[in-house]
Amino acid sequence: MHEFFSRQFLGNSIRDYTVMLAILLFILAIRRLLSKWLAALFFNFIRKWATLLHRKDLVDLLLRPLEYFLVLSVFLLTVNHFHFPQEFNFVLYRGESEEGVEHVFTLQQFLSLLFSIAFSISVTWILLRLVDFISLVLQQKHQASRDKTDEQFVIFFKDFFKAILLVLGCIWMIRLLFGASLVEKLVAGLGIGAAALALAAKESIENLIGSFIIFFDKPFQVGDAVKVNGYQGEVEKIGLRSTRIRTVEKTYVTVPNKQMVDSIVDNLSLRTQRRVELRLELDSETPADKILAVLKRMRGSLVTDERVNEGFQVNLQEFTKDTYVIQVIYLTMILDTAPFLALREEVNMYIIRALEKEGVKLPATKTVVIDHSA
After folding, report:
1. How confident is the model over 164-199, as pLDDT tens digits?
2. Contact 283, 245 (CB under 8 A)
3. What's 211-270's CATH class?
4. DSSP3 helix / strand / coil % (the chain, rounded to 5)
5. Where in the chain is the domain with CATH 2.30.30.60?
6. Prediction pTM value
7. What are phi and psi of 330, to 5 degrees?
């Protein structure tokens, strides 16, 4: 048996292959359990900063990337002790530099590069999930305090830091694929090509700057109802490039942040009152005493309604040869849509009852009621 395991196959003993296979099978069998244990261990370390979250929240985020990382790490550690079979070490590329130095790229180098890229991806994956967890911790804290500004901060910088990690990951991939010299040349070339790069990415940079302006100036927040560029709806997300708005028609509008900064934005959520303006056109044959009685009844109804603010206006605004125009303007502290619509309905009923009690009828051929409400 000892002689069998000592036999050489492709430059390595059968014992080495057996040990490697046993280790890989073992880590594959316990990878989920070990990943959960590592995630739980890390959660216990940061528990005092994540009091509003449970261990399962972190485990769910880190489980898959940790499994991938553990299996890959163990595989690389075991393979590192093996001698690569020279029979399979084919030359994939052979070239010569300008200085006359010959460059050879073999299968062993290719596999080593492939494993390095896979390992880098696993580390980046774990870091991205950690950013997700940190943002989740901060979101839970800010939800408890009901501070929308801080919640917006978390969403914004979560995307920002993930973008930074991805950029750094791409730079590292370039370094692995093409060497550190290319990265140094790219960094050195940024000074020369900065103007061209800035011109090519002008809109993207403007939108990124716009996102910072929105965050620090705070003209609106996530959850606010806004009007901008002819669209009205609720802000659902403020990203690095654009702001997403769910319109009143339930469509999903994406507006570049530069436009959100440059345009006139009406933040409906910050209004303190809602205003209603009604213009009611009556027939010019309506007697004056009837009009005065209707105006008196309207004023009396609005005075008794506590939801209507003081200072409302009910008057005969103007008249023409065909119509008398009654104008009704009032303000209310009710901001929610459903109660506001209920109030408008009741005020309209006040007007209808006043007309009925005084026997004033709207002309059958021409009836104009203009309603301006905000």
Report:
1. 888 888 877 777 766 666 556 555 555 555 555 556
2. no
3. mainly beta
4. 60, 20, 20
5. 211-270
6. 0.55
7. -150, 155
